[in-house]
Amino acid sequence: MDMRTMKPYLLIASALLAGCAQQQLAQADKARERMAYAEAAPRYERALNTLADRDAMLRAADSYRMLNQPAKAAAWYSAADRLQPLQGDDAIAHGRMLLMQDRTGEAALQFERVLSERPEDPVVRELGLAIADRGAFFADTTLFTIVPVHIDGVSSAFSAVPMGSKLLVAAERTQAAGKPNPWNGEAFLDLCTVEAREGIMAGIAKPLPGEVNGRFHEGPAVLSSDGRTMYFTRSDYFRFRLNKDEQGTSHLMLFRAELQADGRWGKVSSFAYNGEDFSAGHAALSADGSMLYYISDMPGGFGGTDLYACERTDDGWGYPRNLGTTVNTTGNEMFPTLRGDTLFFASNGHRSLGGLDIFRTVQHNGEWSQPENLNYPINTRHDDFALVMLDDRKGYLSSNRGGRDGIYRIQENDPTLVLNISVFDEEDGSPMAGAEVRLLEPTQPEPLTLFTNDDGHVSFPLTVDKLYEVLASRDGVFTERRQVSTMEQRISRNYTEDFRMQRVVVDKPIVIENIYYDYDRWDIRPDAAQELDKVAQLFIDNTALSFELGSHTDSRASDMYNLVLSDARARSAMDYLIRKGVPAERISARGYGESKLVNRCKDDVDCTEEEHQANRRTEFKVVKVMPMLSERK
């Protein structure tokens, strides 16, 4: 058969293939409309083997995105992008899928494209800044130990909360009865209990007894402090029918259940602020039960799902109050949990690694603090959410970092804090070996004392939220004191303090910088007091030394006037130091007037104000070194 004979057959075959592709595409669209993404995605694939339909590629990408398959989603977004550059939400979605594969450079290009058309978009701006400062998410990877928990009888599980000796989880059971969830082909979510073991095995998931679980989804739950009341998330359905709005969307609702005498959960009632045209769910309760937090995309929010709070009243829960723009964004805020005054939540609108990241915020005087990203390893480039922290610094995390939603046991660790001290001789810069370094911490009765090595170094371990005093000393040099604060230090850090030790030389004047007096006065000004406080501490720390405090003037005014004025200033400074705790027997005062000028500015010499200021100084010097210099407090 020659080509002229074959041509009709080729045309017929092409038409048949195109017809099959169009049929696959129509079936894929119908499946996607009813959120059957597990069916829609492969049908789009088969249709696109023949067709080059950009819109269908985007729908295929979206279907794989909803199935949490970022590699396949990104492949179809890229295919559509090659036909015509992506814009707006499609480019954002593509960028997020790329981030979940750690393809940050490609993701940045997508976000830059969106910012060029929407420069004020806060979520895209945060995503771009997160890429630019990606290393900050890995500043300290030791703060949490994370171990996956294996649960028998489920294909996925998340939102674990303690329930007595067990865990209450939302799970897709492998042996669940009824039709599968068309979204992903797995079972609908049920609330289940599992044994809360210490190892990586958590036992077999068992459906919660009672009236809570039904034909469709039952999801994240929270228990009251007495364990007798539960608020849980559920699909909006009645018996065997899933309710949908005019756009065909099925929403989530919040429900309340009570523990019955037989151990079953019943008396299920709907939350007062559920709606037919928006979702509500993911409840969290304060320890005293006075506040309920939850998420909703109800009208009046900032975009996506926002966090809301209700206060308990005599008539039930008060009207929901949006937590505001500090917490909520135009993205999604989800899965709130509480530990004390700290609110944890997941968001893809704040600066994150890519998917949902977990943040914490604290309320002060009615205002929420700027949300803090908990960073890696709590957060990854995947979805991380539903963090439940317990009082023993242990807890549970939900994440799809393993490919499916799973539960991880976590242990919060203190940051590793180390103080590195170097002691040098100020005169020649050489390391000072054998120097005594004392670390004082207010709650400890005795200081921790170490001696510097041949390189003049010594190191101390520190703990968080402490204010330390560090003293370095050795015979023949001034003891010096520093403060080191670890208050609110939340990541590991090496602190460094260099001591340049000044040798003690009897009768050698040492100028006290920044000691100024008002004209013709000798009382201590506030700025001078700050410097004298440092001198007081130096005198107190060097218990084997006695000091003279000397005051000098410039050459202007008469010799006698300057002598009297300088003596008054010296005694005023001495009295101040004694009030600060310097023993009176170890300090004396003397005014020198203009008798010890440090430059050419004698009487009748024309000098600048700066040159005169050099002569108006306060000094101290060691006048006596007591024996037994090593006997110090």
CATH class categorisation of the largest domain: Mainly Beta
Number of strands: 36
Give the CA-based shape: elongated
Strand order of the largest sheet: 5-1-25-24-23
Integer count of domains: 4
- The CATH H-level superfamily of the largest domain is Glycosyl hydrolase domain, family 43
Q: By helix and strand content, what is the structural category?
A: alpha+beta
Rounded radius of gyration (Å):
36 Å
What fraction of residues sit in β-strands?
A: 25-35%
Could you name the CATH topology of the largest domain?
Tachylectin-2, Chain A
CATH architecture of the largest domain: 5 Propeller
Stretches where pLDDT is under 50 for at least 5 consecutive residues are: 8-17, 628-633
Number of helices: 10
Question: Can you describe this structure?
Answer:
The protein has ten helices and 36 strands. α5 runs antiparallel to α6. The chain is α+β, with helices and mostly antiparallel strands and 633 residues long. The radius of gyration is 36 Å and the shape is elongated. Helix content is 24%, strand content 33%. The strands form nine sheets. Strands 5-1-25-24-23 form a five-stranded mixed sheet, with no helix packed on it. Strands 13, 14, 15, 16 and 17 form a five-stranded antiparallel sheet that branches.
Keyword list:
alpha+beta, Immunoglobulin-like, 633 residues, five-stranded mixed sheet, single chain, disordered C terminus, five-stranded antiparallel sheet, 10 helices, Serine Threonine Protein Phosphatase 5, Tetratricopeptide repeat, 4 domains, Tachylectin-2, Chain A
